[in-house]
Automatic annotation (TrEMBL):
PROSITE patterns: IG_LIKE. The gene is LOC102804455. It is a single-pass type I membrane protein. The chain crosses the membrane at residues 1135-1160. This is Titin-like. Its main location: membrane. Keywords: Disulfide bond, Glycoprotein, Immunoglobulin domain, Membrane, Transmembrane, Transmembrane helix. Residues 1229-1271 are annotated as: Disordered. It comes from Saccoglossus kowalevskii (Acorn worm).
């Protein structure tokens, strides 16, 4: 029977589903399904208290009573402070972090924590000086949690949280909470290995200090006990103790062979946070008591003099004497040494058969052949171990060590090193780096060799043709040996190498005054012969480099050239005006060389030439004068006018024989306007303004094409024509049509049917009108409040008249998008990289559409051919990806994505291209979306560097220090476990990979290609500034797995997709098939697909997508279990099949007849409809007029950003009904808020112009821009 008790364990409020208290506000919910939830209506202050759910005992079946944990009901008044959470009794162990909760609603006073009655904090400040204490939580939400970062025994005590009185609030005090801090559990005594005979009784010991968990004895991993209770089915086991709660010894009576195994003592983790602990695993060995036998025998041993050695000999069921012999002579008998050598002794527990021979301070004379035997006795025969060899050698020592040496470059030096009794491996080291192993040289230097006149003893290091780089500290080192001999190392020998030459300047460039343009790259050359000091570049007297390191942090600066040949050329990319100045290189003094200075460069950076005014299309009647404008700022090259690609001027001079042409220059040096007097039809054509490349490297520029149209005034022609339009329902459509020298009647047609006659609309379309300046030939069609029925093909045409033929603009499409259309602004095309492409690179193109009912149908088109992509659909999004390998054939190719939808009159498109591919023979390219890279700590980072047709060595540089050479990381400059060079080196990929990024990895990186071939310069990439931020976790509701088809048949191809959302860096996704990794296809960084060929072999397989992230304590997964149905088989054609087929054919004929009649009837109705016109539904117009305006939709305070609508998102409340939980009732006056977020409305118009031309050349078209120019 279930009861519910109220405040402070008062009498029951209910009995099963019946309320026994005199309170009509109480109700028991859902008793029919075993739930007895207590509902209290109209809560008041009197209801505050502690509630429990109690089930009484059932004496009929012997079931005991049970009771839930107390649930506290707290009533909060919105006007005064109150506690929403209070501290609770807590147990923990030393060293762990612990938090005591205290949350205050409507806080007005100060929150104070006290320990044992003494205040220790005031609001967020700790007042007792304990650095382990802090106040944490969201104080804006009233959270003032007391955190102890590392609990100590002294933190044990009574804690209480109170809020001082303030304003209208009285002081409130939480209940007292007891914090108990104990030492962690640990073993005092652990079990040891035991050897016994069948039938014996043994005890395995185990004692625990501060035990908090449950203690188990385990044998071979299986649990035998639980504290003092035996859980295994073995009556010979028992737990014995002389110290209850501390000692848990396992006693085994009547040992048998089944008891042999591995035993350990295990204590589980505890509720106070204490971790589980395991004792050492020990072996219990049980022997048969019948006859003596060896259980352990000695083995060959090699040691050095002065060490101790033990030769093992263990006998089970010993009956005779155990005797050790050396070289056939007995030296012991049982535990007695009989050879008189005090260094010899018998070690071990003789009662357990241990007769181990120990020799202390071994000498070379101890070398010999040893054997252990047990003499015959009782039922046992004599037994002997195999003979073994003991070898005692003198320790390795140096006979001769290297000494310091000073020589001149080009000479030969020998460092001596001889070793007696060498047991380890001998290495020579230079500056702590190993250069040899025994007789082998480990470095690539033909001038170094190991020479010896006494092999195995002498290992002299000989270096000939010594150079200054050979100077350093050398040591001879012998490693420790397997016989226990220690390693030895000689004293350091310093090699000093003098050079006789001094550093000198290399060739000085002839031109030191350089003029360049902004955005270009300049290399200031400098070389030094026999460099000994540091090469330093300065700008206007301030140092900016030191050897290869750039000091001012400017990533545009780098040191290029063959440094080994003394080239230290300063390269500056992406030049700006601020780079102008005086640059000088110098080499500091060093050794015998004085400081030397090169002549200074004077660098002038000018803005690049650009058009300030470009010519535009113009139309004019023959005989008039026109001027095509062209103005250039920072002109460095020669300016030419071109007509149809042919040059007609050079700067201010006309280069063709035509007196009507002239160059008009209102502003000399910048304006080069082309004037043509008395134009004629021969002047009709395309004109461009072109400025040639300049001596300072400024690139050539060319204006856009300006079309000059010369009209014959005697015939009519279009000057503007309509273009395709895409609009939303309710918007206004304007189709332009302007006719020059109109002679006939201008008519608009829709879908082939005429709808106007000059300015008159000839249909009942009240929202159609002809607008514009008719005297100027403007007959523009305007459609207001456009509806889907207005979609169609429209054309403007003029009938023939006088001497003018009929002319037509060509049909254009009008698409009115309805509410079921996809979002405006889509489709969108994106590419996996915006950088210049490299041959062999993988390129992923993604086309995306959002919304629509049904969703849009996407397809990729390349050069008019449809390309098969990878589709990935969700409820609201459609994506089509195209995965390409970059080849030279793709250069200049454009990819178009077409979006088709029932509401589109024509497909809507987006495009990528033409593709720009780097097909140069040798170039270093650094792939990165941004100059600077930022990632999160714990993520993985890849910096890509590719060298095509690589000839030389590629290095990665970090903060001026070289960290790699090709695929080899430089010693000491990286973390070997996290840094590596990856990529396909066969295509020049040398990608720097950094796993588990740390703050120390931040810095400036670039890659450098050094060449060992003549004529090939050193090349470097741009620098990347690598920053590291804290990681942001992905959305908690992801990953999500989807399958392309819910019904899969044997032979089908199925696409599994795994999606993650959010996170910085994004989560890493991995598909597994029954625990085996599968290679997926990354559609983008948040979606990975897996293509499966369905068959009986994969039926029932589980496909798991694992999402990993540095912020996850454990990876997150989603799972798809694949079910593959068998494909139906053909069992033959029955008579019933043929009867059914005949019936279906007859039915199909009847349906076709009905369809023919319906189509015929509809065409007749449409014909009558078009003749009579139609009247729009006034109800639709009134409904649209009654819709609220955009401003009326803003139902909340605050100004929207952009074209946005606020959407109310309701707060979802989750009820927990398993057990009573603390509840909080918010008092009157406290309201809940609803989150409002703007939804952006995006628009895209298609502006393709009509391309049809009139019949006669005499009347070319005029566009709107030309008409304006005429006016």
């Amino acid at each position: 029977m279930a009861y519910c008790r109220g405040k402070k364990m008062a009498p029951p409020l209910s009995n099963d589903a019946t309320i026994v208290a005199a309170d009509s506000r109480l109700t028991i919910l859902n008793p029919s399904v075993g739930e007895y939830n207590l509902q209290i209506d109209d809560v008041s202050v009197n209801d505050v208290g502690s509630y429990v759910c109690f089930v009484s005992e059932d004496t009929a079946i012997g079931d005991s009573s049970i009771q839930s944990n107390p649930a506290n009901l707290i009533m909060q008044d919105a006007a005064v402070q109150n506690m929403t959470s209070v501290p609770e009794d807590t147990e923990t162990i030393t060293g762990l972090e612990v938090s005591l909760e205290c949350s205050v609603f409507h806080k007005e006073g100060n929150v104070i924590w006290s320990k044992d009655g003494v205040d220790i904090s005031n609001d967020v400040f700790i007042t007792n000086g304990d650095s382990q204490l802090s106040i944490v939580g969201d104080q804006s939400a009233g959270e003032y949690y007391l955190r102890i970062s590392s609990a100590a025994l002294s933190d044990t005590g009574v804690y209480q949280c109170r809020v001082t009185p303030a304003d209208n609030s009285e002081e409130i005090i939480s209940p007292q909470a007891i914090l108990t801090v104990e030492e962690p559990q640990s073993f005092i005594v652990e079990p040891v290995e035991e050897v016994a005979v069948e039938g014996d009784v043994i005890v395995l010991t185990c004692s625990v200090e501060n035990k908090h968990g449950t203690l188990h004895w385990k044998k071979d991993g299986a649990i035998l006990t639980e504290d003092m209770q035996i859980t295994a089915n073995d009556p010979s086991l028992s737990v014995v103790t002389s110290q209850p709660g501390r000692e848990y010894n396992l006693q085994i009576n009547a040992l048998s062979m089944e008891h042999m195994g591995e035993y350990l003592c295990h204590v589980t983790s505890a509720a106070n946070g204490d971790v589980a602990i395991d004792s050492d695993s020990v072996k219990l060995t049980v022997y048969d008591a019948a006859v003596q036998d060896f259980t352990t025998v000695p083995v060959d041993t090699n040691i050095v003099a002065g060490k101790s050695v033990m030769l093992d000999c263990v006998v089970s069921n010993k009956e005779g004497d155990v005797i050790w012999s050396k070289d056939g002579v007995d030296i012991t008998k049982d535990g007695t040494v009989i050879n008189g050598d005090a260094r010899y002794s018998i070690a071990g527990d003789a009662t357990n058969g241990h007769y181990n021979l120990q020799i202390d301070d071994a000498e070379v004379t101890d070398t010999g052949e040893f054997q252990c035997r047990a003499t015959a006795a009782d039922n046992s025969d004599e037994i002997s171990t195999p003979k073994i060899d003991l070898v005692v050698d003198d320790p390795q020592t140096f006979i001769e060590k290297p000494d310091d040496a000073t020589i001149t470059e080009g000479e030969t030096v020998i460092f001596n090193c001889s070793v007696s009794n060498k047991h380890g491996t001998l290495h020579w080291k230079k500056d702590r780096n190993t250069i040899s192993t025994d007789m082998t040289i480990d470095v690539n230097d033909p001038n170094i060799a190991i020479v010896s006149d006494n092999p195995g003893v002498t290992y002299n290091l000989k270096m000939k043709n010594v150079i200054p780089d050979d100077a350093g500290v050398y040591v001879c080192y012998v490693t420790e040996a397997t016989n226990g001999d220690s390693s030895i190392e000689s004293q350091a020998a310093t090699l000093t190498v003098f050079d006789l030459a001094i550093q000198q300047l290399g060739t000085t460039p002839s031109d030191l005054d350089l003029e360049v343009v902004e955005g270009s790259t300049v290399v200031l050359q400098f070389s030094v012969q026999h460099k000994e000091g540091f090469v330093i570049w300065s700008k206007d007297g301030a140092d900016i480099s030191n050897d290869v390191t750039i000091l001012n942090g400017d990533p545009r600066l780098s040191m290029v050239g063959d440094h080994t040949s003394g080239e230290y050329n300063l390269q500056i990319t992406d030049l700006s005006a601020e780079d102008s100045g005086s640059y000088q290189a110098r080499v500091t003094s060093a050794d015998n060389s004085p400081e030397i200075h090169a002549e200074a460069y004077t660098l002038s950076v000018e803005a690049s030439q650009s058009f300030t005014t470009e010519p535009s299309d113009i139309g004019e009647v023959e005989g008039e004068t026109i001027t095509l404008p062209c103005s250039v700022s920072n002109k460095h090259g020669s300016l030419s006018w071109k007509k149809d690609g042919v040059v007609i001027s050079n700067d201010g001079v006309i280069s063709v024989s035509d007196p009507r042409l002239s160059i008009v220059s209102p502003a000399l040096g910048s304006d080069y306007n082309l004037r043509i007097d008395n134009i004629n039809l021969g002047d009709d054509g395309e004109y461009t303004c072109y400025v040639s490349e300049a001596d300072n490297g400024d690139a050539a520029i060319e204006s856009g094409i300006a079309k000059l149209t010369v009209y014959d005034s005697e015939v009519q022609n279009f000057t503007t024509v309509p273009s395709d339009v895409i609009l939303e329902v309710g918007e206004t459509v304007l189709l332009t049509c302007t006719v020059y020298h109109k002679e006939g009647t201008l008519i608009w047609s829709r879908n082939g049917e005429d709808i106007s006659n000059d300015v008159t609309i000839t249909t009942d379309d009240n929202n159609y009108s002809i607008i514009g300046d008719h005297d100027s030939g403007e007959y523009n069609l305007q459609i207001t409040n456009a509806q889907p029925v207005d979609s169609g093909q429209y054309e403007c045409w003029v009938t023939e008249g006088d001497n003018s033929d009929q002319i037509r603009s060509g049909e254009v499409s009008v698409s009115i998008r309805g509410p079921d259309s996809p979002l405006r602004g889509y489709p969108k095309c994106t590419s996996s990289t915006e950088d210049k492409l490299i041959l062999g690179e993988t390129l992923i193109l993604v086309c995306e559409s959002i919304g629509g009912n049904p969703a849009a149908n996407l397809r990729w088109v390349q050069d008019g051919m449809i390309q098969e992509g990878i589709a990935m659909d969700t409820n609201t999004e459609v994506r089509l990806s195209l995965v390409l390998t970059v080849t030279e054939d793709l250069l200049g190719t454009e990819f178009i994505c077409q979006s088709n939808h029932p509401t589109f009159y024509i497909p809507e498109t987006c495009s990528i291209g033409p593709l720009d591919i780097d097909i140069s023979q040798t170039q270093v390219v650094l792939f990165s979306k941004d100059t600077d890279k930022t990632t999160k700590e714990g993520a993985n980072m890849v910096m890509e560097c590719t060298a095509l047709n690589k000839a030389g060595t590629l290095h990665w540089i970090k903060d001026g220090q070289m960290i790699s050479s090709d695929t080899v990381m430089e010693t000491g400059q990286y973390d070997a476990n996290r840094y590596s060079i990856r990529g396909d080196q066969s295509v020049g990929e040398y990608f720097l990979n950094i796993d588990d990024v740390r703050n120390s990895d931040a810095g400036t990186y670039y890659c450098l290609l050094s060449s060992n071939e003549d004529g090939m310069p050193m090349m470097s990439s741009k620098a990347i500034n690598f920053h590291i931020d804290d990681a942001i976790p992905p959305n908690i509701n992801f990953p999500q797995c989807t399958i392309s088809s819910d019904y899969v048949i044997d032979g089908d191809t199925v696409l599994l997709t795994c999606i993650t959302k959010g996170g910085d860096p994004p989560a890493t996704l991995q598909w597994d098939q029954d625990g085996q990794n599968r290679e997926g296809i990354y559609i983008d960084e948040s979606i990975v697909g897996l293509q499966i060929n369905a068959s009986a072999e994969v039926n029932g397989n589980t496909f798991t997508c694992t999402s990993s992230h540095s912020t996850f304590e454990n990876p997150r997964t989603c799972v798809i279990e694949l079910r593959v149905e068998s494909r139906p088989t053909d069992t033959g054609t029955s008579v019933g099949f043929w009867i059914t087929l005949i019936f279906l054919i007859i039915a199909l004929i009847v349906i076709l007849l009905i369809l023919f009649f319906c189509v015929y009837k509809r065409r007749e109705d449409e014909k009558e409809y078009n003749q009579q016109g139609y009247k729009r539904n006034n109800d639709i117009e009134s409904s649209l007029a009654s819709l609220p305006s955009r401003d009326e939709l803003y139902t909340h305070t605050g100004k929207p950003t952009g074209d946005g609508l606020y959407i109310n998102r309701p707060v979802i409340n989750t009820d927990f009904t398993d057990v009573p939980a603390d509840a909080m009732n918010v008092g009157a006056g406290v309201s809940q808020t609803v989150e409002n977020k703007p939804v952006q409305i995006r628009e895209k118009r298609k502006t393709d112009e009509a391309t049809k031309k009139p019949k006669k050349k005499k009347k070319p078209r005029r566009n709107q821009k030309e008409l304006n120019a005429m006016q």
